[in-house]
Specification:
- The protein has helices at residues 2-17, 23-42, 45-48, 56-68, 71-80, 116-120, 134-149, 162-172, 194-203, 218-231, 245-255, 273-279, 289-296, 318-326, 335-342, 346-358, 375-383, and strands at 83-86, 108-111, 123-127, 153-156, 177-181, 205-208, 234-237, 259-262, 284-285, 362-365, 368-371.
- The protein is α/β, with parallel strands linked by helices and 390 residues long.
- The protein has three domains: 1-69; 108-296, Rossmann fold (3-Layer(aba) Sandwich), CATH 3.40.50; 312-389, Winged helix-like DNA-binding domain superfamily/Winged helix DNA-binding domain (Arc Repressor Mutant, subunit A, Orthogonal Bundle), CATH 1.10.10.10.
- Helix 14 (318-326) crosses helix 16 (346-358).
Length: 390
């Protein structure tokens, strides 16, 4: 339809005009539509007044960018890469991005075959420090692989460090991963991740707000994080110092009502200080993929119960365990002495001692009873731990 084509061309042109997250432009889009904004930018001074909120110099910059935009060429370039452009209202558009309000992307450039809307419904962001530690790399790869094996899409920003480890972890198990870029989806940035970006484009999705050929800037990295936060069900920060950009993603996720999680690190590590700050607030502590899925998944997707090994002594009746604790270490004791120590009757103690004897915890020695070399019972007495201490 002609109307859809006109809307497409106007949206594509605006990705050349507006910077990601430009709320003035987002407000104009809401009021006038994409075609209306382009028409006003191309019109005379009478039209410019409806594009309020910015100064004359900035508006002149918008107009110059709009005059230079060539949406047909941009669409041909992305088609040549096997990519596409989607925008709000299109079948592939993830509705959760609308939570960004006027900071919502004008549209998204995509490379990769999977459907973005479907993938975003079951996705988790894994982000963290660029200059990460071996521990952080291990945790990011392990978490990503675990999530991918459970059918979740791992979303990150393709940067060095934690981002790259997360993408590699998902790809290593044949899982799904998507990279949200601060540049054009045809631009290999960082250059050292050219191979990784190619793998993601082939098996997953490359996502960007900027048109083909665009290069990243410092502000674009920060603004890219809002898309990662809004697109996913939750954000996990693996390692982050106090001023890490990944904390921006986590806090934006919190403001959007998304789940925020953190992986703890050594208390002495500056690269975990930002994560620990999050954990002191509203972020949830997670250590493996099961715990992440329990928080972001559906009802019944629970992490397995965490507990130590069940020892034979743990299975004893409470009264039997009390009699066992009453036996002195290193010497035999009579039933009456044990009864006094256990605070119960002698007949009761004798019955419990025979039960313990059948289980190998105690042995008869003359008229008394003593602890055997049973590993569980012996460890209990020599370690001084009582049943209620564990």
């Amino acid at each position: 339809m002609a109307g859809d084509r006109d809307e497409l061309l106007a949206r594509v042109a605006l990705t050349r005009v507006l910077e990601p997250g430009d709320e003035h432009g987002g407000r104009w889009l809401r009021r006038h539509g994409a075609e209306g904004v382009i028409r006003r930018l191309a019109g005379g001074p009478g039209d410019w007044g409806e594009l309020d909120g910015v100064g004359a110099g900035r508006l002149a910059g918008y107009r110059e960018r709009a005059a230079r935009a060539d949406p047909e060429r941009d669409l041909a370039d992305i088609a040549g890469l096997g990519g596409r452009f989607v925008w709000a209202g299109a079948p592939e558009w993830p509705g959760q991005l609308d939570d960004l309000g006027d900071a919502r992307p004008v549209g998204l450039w995509l490379r990769g075959r999977p459907d973005l809307r479907v993938w975003a419904l079951r996705s988790v962001a894994l982000v963290g420090a660029r200059a990460c530690t071996p521990y952080g790399t291990h945790m990011a790869q392990t978490l990503a692989a675990g999530l991918a094996e459970r059918g979740w899409v791992v979303v990150s920003g393709a940067a060095y460090g934690i981002d790259g480890a997360a993408h590699r972890g998902a790809l290593a198990v044949g899982g799904a991963t998507a990279a949200v870029l601060a540049c054009g989806v045809d631009t290999h940035y960082p250059p050292g991740h050219a191979g990784l970006l190619g793998r993601i484009a082939g098996a997953g999705l490359l996502i960007g707000e900027l048109p083909p050929g665009s290069h990243p800037t410092r502000s674009r990295f920060v603004l890219r994080n809002r898309v990662i936060a809004a697109l996913t069900r939750g954000t996990v920060v693996v390692e982050a110092a106090h001023r890490s950009g990944s904390l921006v993603t986590a806090r934006r996720a919190q403001r959007l009502g998304r789940l925020t999680m953190g992986v703890p690190g050594p208390a002495t590590s500056g690269l975990s200080a930002g994560v620990h700050e999050l954990l002191r607030g509203e972020a949830a502590l997670v250590t493996d993929a099961d715990e992440i899925v329990e928080l972001v998944g559906g009802m019944g997707e629970l992490a397995p119960e965490r507990r130590g090994p069940v020892l034979p002594r743990d299975l004893l009746h409470e009264e039997t365990a009390r009699v066992l604790e009453a036996l002195p270490a290193g010497r035999p004791a009579g039933a009456r002495e044990v009864a006094l120590a256990a605070g119960t009757g002698t007949d009761e103690v004798i019955g419990r001692l025979y039960e313990l004897h059948s289980l190998g915890f105690v042995e008869r020695q003359g008229d008394g009873w003593r602890l055997t070399g049973h590993p569980d019972g012996q460890a209990t007495r020599t370690g001084g731990a009582r049943r209620g201490d564990r």
